[in-house]
Amino acid sequence: xxxxxxxxxxxxxxxxxxxxxxxxxxxxxxxxxxxxxxxxxxxxxxxxxxxxxxxxxxxxxxxxxxxxxxxxxxxxxxxxxxxxxxxxxxxxxxxxxxxxxxxxxxxxxxxxxxxxxxxxx
Length: 121
What we know:
alpha+beta; single chain; 6 helices
């Protein structure tokens, strides 16, 4: 899921343009896996959080099954968006929520790149 998200994000000109002024690192935790996702001027990268030299601004934490549902081409109701996951108590947000909400649209567009296939593409 993470590799697909990074590859698609870096090949999406709209997303790169939208993120050109964003410098942000956040953690994405899926069960036992944890990743540090970094956006640097529109370029996205991801690496294991355990080997990261910098701390994430915020963490999005959910069970592996929740992220798998989120990544389906047409996600089940309540799993289509990180705020829906949070409201349904399936996603935990830790850290600086202000940074997340300042960059919410970009983060949501980035995470949508993890979907298994594009609908209406």
